[in-house]
Structure formats: structure tokens, C-alpha cells
Amino acid sequence: MSRPERKPVRLVPVPSTNKIPERDIGQSPILECRHLGIDFGGLTAVNDLNMAIGRTEIAGLIGPNGAGKTTVFNLLTKVYQPTRGSILLDGHETSKMTTAQVNRTGIARTFQNIRLFDNLSVEDNVKLGLHNHIRYGMFEGIFRLPRFWSQEKLAHESALELLHIFGMEDMANVKAGSLPYGAQRRLEIVRALATNPSLLLLDEPAAGMNPSETSELMDNIVKIRNTFHIAILLIEHDMNLVMGICEGICVLNFGQVIAKGTPDEIKSNPVVIEAYLGKGKKGGK
Hints:
Elements: E1 11-13, E2 19-21, E3 31-40, E4 43-53, E5 58-62, H1 69-76, E6 84-89, E7 92-93, H2 99-105, E8 107-109, H3 122-129, H4 138-142, H5 146-165, H6 181-193, E9 199-203, H7 211-228, E10 231-235, H8 239-245, E11 248-253, E12 256-261, H9 263-267, H10 270-277
Parallel strand pairs: 5-10, 5-11, 8-9, 9-10
Antiparallel strand pairs: 1-2, 3-4, 3-6, 6-7, 11-12
Helix pairs in contact: 3-5, 3-6
């Protein structure tokens, strides 16, 4: 089935050096990085990163291997603390937050290497993502008091609802480790969505997928944005995916931003072509 033609998106400035999609300009960016940087000993891994993401934007972070992309994700999720600069999540500075606090505030992520609980069921993996919404105490859980059962019923219904959106409700009782690769990728995304994020970070979601699975993934990413009205930032090397669904793209090289713009602007940027896309490829993989 042919894919609908992607409509061009106009990026407009916000009150900084950054840009977001025009439709999001009525609200502040869900994420803004200002002069963000981190050093490991004498090595500067990320330097002077300025980036904003609109509240319903699908954005891409691309660059060669070792450019600092996953380091940026680790900074956003507080796995690493920045050496300098600031991160604003929904207008709030995250400098003193832990990874758990950032997750509760609105950032969820997946990983390049799938991290599921293989011996747990699909439903139980999703329920783990619902931990922010469980409202019973240890005493109520140990003695199986009425509040425990009501909250467990709510978690069951919420997990099945999320699985239904991605056509996985029939797999609810299947062990996660026995799922096909593409289904495991979808489950990891569903589990991240269970935390009710306002920004979803996807680290190479198409890694290891065949063209059919990648096409389905593209549809699912757009579906997530449209269904949950959230922003998505993805790291990806598949340029067909990036150019097909991303609205704003930030290009890193040696920890430094070398270009920002729309897909059309990025794939025709001579600096990006030289550093990453390859001479003469202009948007090819």
C-alpha cells in the first residue's frame, strides 16, 4: 500500500536560537536544551547543544557513529549530569532531578538494545510501565486489601488498552522473550507509553528490522503522536525513516551540532552530506 505523501512542515523560531513546527508555536517547547555539554575527563562528548522540540513534533537526532547522540539521550534522562548548560522540560529546569523524577515529569525512552523482562508476560511488562499511576501502599499490597485489587484491575485494563492500540492484545499472556523481534520493539514502545510521557525518546527503533517492519514502525510512530498528542525524538540511521516522518532534524558530528532544519534542508545541506550522508547520496542511507 502506498504511503500518503508527507506534507512539508514549516519550522519557526521560538524565543531562542531554536525552531519548532509552526503548529506548536502557541505553546512553549516541551523540551529545550541550552548550551548543553558534557566532558568525560579531558574528552568533550557533547558541546554547546541548542535544541528545542515542539509539543507535537516528531524530531530526529542523527549523525555518524560516535557523534554523541546516545550521550544526549543519557543527558536528557539524567543517566549523565551535564557539565554545563541547561535542560528545560515543559519549562522546568531538570538539573536537580534523578532519572526516576525526569520520567515522572514526562520523559520516557527505549533503548538501541531491547530491554524487556523476557520471562514476564507481555501484559506484565506493560504494567511495569504503569508504576507511576499505581496508588496503593506496601501494606495494602501485602494483605491484598480492596484498594490493591481495584488498582490492579485498573492496571490490567490500561495495559490491554495500550496493547490494543498496537494490535497486541492477543499477545497479553505470551512471554515477552518469545515474541518476534518486531513485536518486542513494539512492546518496548508500549511500555514506555505506559508511563504517560509528554516526550518519547526512541534510540534506533528500526535497528535490525526488515523493510516491512520499518514501514510498520513509521506508521506506528505517527500513530503514537496523533493518538497521544506527544512529542517524539528519535535517533536513527535509516534515512528513509528519518526523512519520511521527522519534521525537524538536528545533526551531530563529534558532539557538535552541524545543522538543524527540515528534512529537505538537511538532505541538501553540503556540510551534512560531507560529514554524514555521503557525497552524492543526498538523503540515501
